[in-house]
Amino acid sequence: MTIVKDIEARGLHHCETTALGVLLRHEGLDLSEPLLFGLGSGLSFVYWDGKSMPFPFLGGRVKPFELTRNLAARLGLTLTVKETASPRKAWENVAAPIDAGRPVGLQLDSYHLDYFSTKVHFGGHVVAMYGYDEQDVHLVDTGQQGGAVRTSRAGLARARAERGPMTARHRSFTIALPPHPAPPWQEQLAGAIRDCADAFLAAPIANLGHRGIAKAAEQVPRWLLRADDPARDLPRAALLMEQAGTGGALFRVLYRDFLGECAGLIDDGNLRAGHRLYAEAAVLWTDVSTLIAKAGESGDAAHLEQAGAILRDLSRIEEDAMRRLRLL
Predict the structure, then answer these.
(1) Of 19, 84, 113, 183, which residue is most buried, by most CB within 10 angstroms?
(2) Could you tell me which of 86, 71, 43, 82 has the C-alpha nearest to residue 277?
(3) What number of CA atoms fall less than 13 Å from residue 96's CA on the CB side?
(4) pLDDT at 280
(5) Which residues form the signal peptide (predicted)?
(6) pLDDT at residue 46, rounded to an integer
């Protein structure tokens, strides 16, 4: 058995920040999950629907792995990413750093992981790997999935080889702190907030950012007609918003807490206003998910009409928050 020493297998709310936390703590940098999420400019919104999709998807963060790239660039980290079409090479890419005493991040499809009780394909899942033997590998996943967990090497190989939406080509990555001292992370907060606000406000298509929330406000009231099985599809959508690694309220709780930590370090009226607005938004997003679940359980479209009205308010609230934060 090969195990990386001194791993703190702390499972957080979100998969990518959980993996980043493991890799960075091993390098000597321990940041809270809201700081990891916010420094990676992780907040976003997407309303995603298509002819091939069984039901629409509401996403609250940037694309998989974009958060990691953003964080590495912001903090001056050395991010080494490897991808390959070869399963043999893919295993070598993770075994070598672990043999050398360094944990590895992996992007894969969670469907094939043995410890996942809910079998749903999601190709943007990220875990940290810190050991292996002939049969199994040792991973750190979210707290919801158990934190320190094990899965079979065969299952891991299938998860890494899966192809489909958001999957990567056996992607693995390691992180190292810069060889020379970089500016402290506290000096990077304002830039990370501004970058996130700029991207949110300047989203190139209408189903992203605050315009995407406005689009959701138009579409969600029709979800009883859109669903093949409303009693299944709507509560599942609500569950994904609150519990599927989002930290609650479609990642708005994480961003609220990030802004709160920043407000304790930066004296700025626009930052305090943005924090207040995202605290309000977090409560309203939970209200939306509750109403969507109730509509699926009852078949009453009035719940979706109410959810649509709240989403219209959320579009305005988040646009206002980001316009203020952009001025930081």
Answers:
(1) 19
(2) 43
(3) 10
(4) 98
(5) none
(6) 97
What CA–CA distance (Å, rounded) separates 317 from 320?
Answer: 5
Max CA pair span of the chain: 60
C-beta separation of 242 from 282 below 8 A: no
Nearest to 282 by CA among 306, 246, 309, 308: 246
Helices (H) and strands (E) in the chain, counts: 12, 9
The residue type found at 245 is G
Q: What is the pLDDT of residue 205?
A: 92
Q: Both tokens of residue 21?
A: 């936390």
- Terminus-to-terminus CA distance in the chain, angstroms? 50
Tokens of 297: 């359980």
pTM for the whole thing? Answer: 0.95
Q: How far is CA 300 from CA 24, 216, 234, 288, 307, in A?
A: 47, 18, 12, 14, 12
Q: What residues does each domain of the chain span?
A: 2-30+78-176, 185-325
Domain at 2-30+78-176: CATH code: 3.90.70
Place of tokens 């899942």: 125
Block mean pLDDT (10 aa), the chain, length 328: 94 97 96 98 95 90 96 96 97 97 97 89 95 97 95 97 90 93 90 98 94 98 96 96 94 98 98 98 98 97 98 98 97
Nearest C-alpha neighbor of 317 from the set 203, 206, 178, 209: 209
